[in-house]
Amino acid sequence: MNIFQQGDFKSHAGLDLSWKIECDGISNKEWKCIAEIIMDLEKRPFQAAIGIPRGGLILGTYLNQYSTQNIKVPYLIVDDVLTTGGSMETFREESFSDKNSFGWVVFARNIPPSWCKALFQMPTNPNEKL
User: Fold this and answer.
1) Which of 33, 38, 72, 118 is least crowded, fewest Cβ atoms below 10 Å from its Cβ?
2) Strand ranges for the chain from DSSP E
3) Can you give the pTM of this predicted structure?
4) Would you say 35 and 46 are in contact if contact means Cβ atoms under 8 Å apart?
5) DSSP H/E element including 40
6) Cis before 54? omega within 30
7) pLDDT in tens, 83-106
8) How do beta strands 101-108 and 75-82 pair?
9) What dihedral angle (degrees, nearest 10) is formed by the CA atoms of 61, 14, 110, 7?
10) Number of C-beta neighbours around residue 37 at 10 A
11) How many CB atoms lie within 10 A of CB 92?
């Protein structure tokens, strides 16, 4: 399966897209490596990694090996691809009303919220309305 796909797609938010990143094409070995890369960059401890269904679940599993299980530190919210940031914001607001969390995504098609980092940041396209 190709990770980068061209065609007519709908984003989770219902936006029309001419290409997408299909993370189902990433192997478990690659997910494990991605988790390690994030941990090389992220020095904050976290209680547990919570993957946003469905794209962030595998990454969350691999990141959990680095969790502290300490209730005094924040949760780490993860996802595979951020398009508008809506899923990350909604998940955080619904699951962590006290905001005791921070986030990581693998790919960001748009600028992530200030509390979230992207491993790979796509340049924003001024002609694309995300």
Assistant:
1) 72
2) 4-10, 16-21, 49-51, 75-82, 101-108, 116-121
3) 0.88
4) no
5) helix 28-41
6) yes
7) 989 999 999 999 886 679 999 999
8) parallel
9) 90
10) 12
11) 22
